Amino acid sequence: MGMPAIQRRWTTADVRDLINESPRHWPRYELIGGELIVTPSPGFPHQTAAMELLFTIRPYLVEQHIGLPMLPPADIELVPGTITQPDFFVLDPHSVADTVEMPKWADFKRLFLAVEVISPSSVRTDRIVKRDFYLDAGVPEYWILDPVARMIERWTRDQETPEVCRSSLVWLPEGAKSPLTIDVPTFFEEVWTKFDKSK
Predict the structure, then answer these.
(1) Does any domain span residue 38?
(2) How far apart, in Å, are the Cα atoms of 195 and each of 46, 188, 198, 199?
(3) Structural domain includes residue 5
(4) Cα four-point dihedral sign 18, 40, 37, 135
(5) Do you find a cis peptide bond into 27, omega within 30 degrees of 0?
(6) What is the pTM of this model?
């Protein structure tokens, strides 16, 4: 007979201890609602999609002089008692208090964008738990990249259902003078081209 599961409410200190004990930064540890979320190291398609998004968005952010594009590891505390590490995110550098000279991840209190790359093992976490968390925490947009279906689910705080982007996604973050248009089919073609051994 199996032992009953012991319910434990994790703290940020507990999770930071786990993070510090993991020299390669994987598995990824996150904390939402007192529950520990453990994610194994990402597969090649997952990591390629996150990197391709970085390459796509970074030049736009530089041109518009807004936001810092980032990839994990990065233990962010948007809400006290939580730690998250989106697969890709855009920080608002001005969300750090002026008195902080050398900021830590916990000092950043605002994101322009949080993105997760979905995989079979993360469907519920990405589509429900993290979606609700980021939108409730004030993140203006939350995207879910699905490399297999070649689509991007786009959630905003005023939507009850996502915008499913299969052809294009137009993003105009706060402070930008002009929007960024992502050609979704071309984006995922770039992701999957990395697997084409004939090239």
Answers:
(1) no
(2) 12, 12, 9, 9
(3) no
(4) positive
(5) yes
(6) 0.89
At 101, the pLDDT band (50, 70, 90 cuts) reads: confident
Share of the chain above pLDDT 90, in %: 60
Q: Which helix (H) or strand (E) holds 121?
A: none
Token readout for 56 is 């796509």
Q: What is the predicted pLDDT for the residue at 25?
A: 63
For residue 22, pLDDT over 80 is answered with no
Domain-located, residue 14: no
Q: Does residue 37 register a pLDDT over 80?
A: yes
Domain containing 154 — which CATH number? 3.90.1570.10
**Cα separation, 29 vs 46, whole angstroms:** 17
Cβ neighbour number for residue 110 with a 10 Å cutoff: 17
Alpha carbon of residue 11 to chain centroid: 21
Separation between Cα atoms, residue 126 and residue 130, nearest integer Å = 5
Residue in this structure with the two tokens 């997760």, named with its chain if needed: 116
pLDDT of 4 above 80: no
Residue 62 CB neighbours (<10 A): 11
The rounded distance, in Å, linking the Cα atoms of 198 and 121 is 30
